[in-house]
């Protein structure tokens, strides 16, 4: 099916809107990026208090300067297996949009933080389409070509379901 001029223009607008600064990090040997506008801080790994009856990828909660925030292990969320904690393992604290439109702080356990990069629109490609409809790609905003590698750019609001986290901690607004 041929793309119309309107489809091409819409694709170009989407790509331009994704250009910007991203914090890149590792999960295993793969690179991922999230918009720096979502990042509140990066903290070293600390003790996480388990919460009963939550999905396996929700490791529990931490007390961050008087605020209780949920912590998600992105390796488990993406079915990469349990995170092996090393000296580089850290928690990226991000603001996730709640169902009511407000922000909720959430911690993301990652293997290592890489760097903050300015990624141009020309470096970002749309996610590939897969014929298997069971493959969910809605949490991937695009794929950035960085030097000789690629990084998956995450829509962290889609990747980490705020509805699940809202039930864990009701009042964790920044």
From TrEMBL:
InterPro entries given in the database record: CheW, CheW-like_dom_sf, CheW-lke_dom
CheW-like domain span: 19-165
GO cellular component, one term: cytosol
A Pfam family this chain is assigned to: CheW
Protein name: Chemotaxis protein CheW
GO biological process entries: chemotaxis; signal transduction
């Amino acid at each position: 099916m041929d793309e119309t001029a309107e489809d091409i223009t819409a694709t170009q607008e989407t790509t331009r809107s994704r250009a910007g600064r991203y914090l890149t990090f590792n999960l295993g040997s793969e690179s991922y990026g999230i918009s720096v506008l979502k990042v509140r801080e990066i903290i070293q790994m600390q003790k996480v208090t388990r919460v009963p009856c939550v999905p396996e990828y929700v490791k529990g909660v931490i007390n961050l300067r008087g605020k209780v925030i949920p912590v998600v292990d992105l390796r488990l969320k993406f079915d990469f297996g349990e995170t092996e904690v090393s000296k580089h393992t850290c928690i990226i604290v991000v603001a996730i949009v709640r169902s009511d439109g407000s922000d909720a702080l959430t911690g993301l356990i990652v293997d290592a933080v890489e760097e903050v990069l300015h990624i141009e629109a020309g470096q970002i490609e749309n996610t590939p389409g897969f014929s298997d409809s069971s493959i969910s790609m809605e949490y991937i905003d695009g794929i950035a070509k960085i030097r000789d590698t690629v990084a998956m750019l995450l829509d962290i609001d889609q990747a980490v379901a705020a509805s699940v986290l809202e039930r864990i901690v009701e009042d964790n607004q920044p």
